[in-house]
Write a structure and sequence with these properties.
The complex is a heterodimer. By secondary structure, chain A is mainly beta. Helix content of chain A is 0%, strand content 55%. In chain A, a hairpin with a 2-residue loop joins strand 7 (64-70) and strand 8. By secondary structure, chain B is mainly beta. Chain B is 0% helix and 53% strand. In chain B, strands 2, 5, 6, 10, 11 and 12 form a six-stranded mixed sheet that branches. Chain B has a four-stranded antiparallel sheet with strand order 3-9-8-7, with no helix packed on it. In chain B, strand 7 and strand 8 (64-69) form a beta hairpin. The chains are: A mainly beta, B mainly beta. The A-B interface holds A 31, 33, 35, 40-45, 48, 50, 55-56, 58, 88, 90, 92, 94, 96, 101-106, 108-109, 111 and B 33, 35, 37, 39, 42-45, 47, 50, 52, 89, 91, 95-103, 105-106.
Chain lengths: 115, 113
């Protein structure tokens, strides 16, 4: 009955590799997000999709490419991984609109370690 | 631009006592929402409480309540009857129609038995 799921939960890889993180939500939400939490625990928005359309892209290097095949899925592909990409990546979803509260539900996070 | 400031990096509270975590924010939007999220060592982000800016009444969820001062742009979280399970990192967050959450730096709360 997981509301927002991410795979994998842990990812260890070498510099220069390409990797993907998958996210799925079964809440019927229309908006999905990717956040990055750095080593100091600071959380920052990366991307947001509403009904498969990109609505937020926060000055993220173009090595990061989100893809939303449908409104229940938002995947994150990272090319040419760098040491500085090591972080925890959170997927989240919400139901947005004039009568909604914009409350976001988070996945369990993916800890990415680049060696 | 939206900003959220949590100036205290860490706090400690005795079990069963009350603690207040501070947060201030800034936004130019008139319609916005404020949240407190809890992140225990498991790293799962858990919503603790939500406040709609247009509501004057402070939100309450069991032992958790907020003191929302809109004019002062202040949004503090009060935890009553603290329990060992409350030990975690707490993040204040600001959201709205632009669909993104802006987080503060977080505060680490420890609970002494």
């Amino acid at each position: 009955d997981t509301a927002v799921s991410q795979t994998p939960k842990y990812l260890v890889t070498q510099m220069g590799n390409d990797k993907s993180i998958k996210c799925e939500q079964n809440l019927g939400h229309d908006t999905m997000y990717w956040y990055k939490q750095d080593s100091k625990k600071f959380l920052k928005i990366m991307f947001s999709y509403n009904n498969k359309e990109l609505i937020i892209n926060e000055t993220v290097p173009n090595r990061f490419s989100p893809k939303s095949p449908d409104k229940a899925h938002l995947n994150l592909h990272i090319n040419s991984l760098e040491l500085g990409d090591s972080a925890v990546y959170f997927c989240a979803s919400s139901l947005n609109g004039p009568s909604e509260s914009y409350e976001q539900y988070f996945g369990p996070g993916t800890r990415l370690t680049v060696t | 631009a939206q900003t959220v400031t949590q100036s205290q990096p860490e706090m400690s509270v005795q079990e069963a006592e009350t603690v207040t975590l501070s947060c201030t924010y800034d936004t130019s939007e008139s319609d916005y929402y404020l949240f407190w999220y809890k992140q225990p060592p498991s790293r799962q982000m858990i919503l603790v409480i939500r406040q709609e800016a247009y509501k004057q009444q402070n939100a309450t969820e069991n032992r958790f309540s907020v003191n929302f001062q809109k004019a002062a742009k202040s949004f503090s979280l009060k935890i009553s009857d603290s329990q060992l399970g409350d030990a975690a990192m707490y993040f204040c967050a600001l959201g709205g129609a632009n669909s993104k959450l802006t987080f503060g730096k977080g505060i680490t709360l420890s609970v002494r038995p």
